[in-house]
Design a protein that fits this description.
This protein has 109 residues and is an alpha+beta fold. It has one domain: Arc Repressor Mutant, subunit A (Orthogonal Bundle), CATH 1.10.10.10. 60% of the residues lie in helices and 13% in strands. The chain is built from 6 helices and 3 strands, in the order ααβααββαα. It has a 3-stranded antiparallel β-sheet with strand order 1-3-2. Strand 2 and strand 3 form a beta hairpin. It is elongated, with a radius of gyration of 21 Å. The model has no long low-confidence stretch (mean pLDDT 89).
């Protein structure tokens, strides 16, 4: 079964792994050392990320190096981007509401 990018980013640990690998490639052990979960659990997350095409695992001697394949995150970015305007409007409306509350609650004088 081919997984998709949305399965990759659905889990907070996988999102954290993506964040780690965005700055530099790391070995499986280096990734596992950053988390308070078992190494087999991290290996499972990395396998899912690999199946989604987000992470590439390459054998380097005795270690496996994990590298991000950022271009494969584009579908998720494009999907989220279409809702950006909606959220910006809602946040602007909320900021205006807060400003009105602050103005009402200011002591006169």
């Amino acid at each position: 079964m081919r997984r998709d990018v949305f399965q990759a980013i659905a889990d907070p640990i996988r999102r954290d792994i993506i964040g780690l690998l965005a700055s530099q490639p790391l070995t499986v052990n280096e990734v596992a050392n950053k988390f308070d979960v078992s190494r087999p659990a991290i290996s499972k997350h990395l396998k899912i990320l690999e199946e989604c095409g987000i992470v590439e695992l390459n054998q380097q001697g005795r270690e496996r190096l994990c590298q991000i394949q950022a271009k494969n995150l584009i579908p998720a970015f494009m999907w989220i981007e279409q809702y950006k305007g909606l959220w910006e409007d809602k946040l602007d409306s909320f900021e205006n509401y807060l400003a009105q509350l602050q103005t009402k609650n200011k002591p006169n004088g």
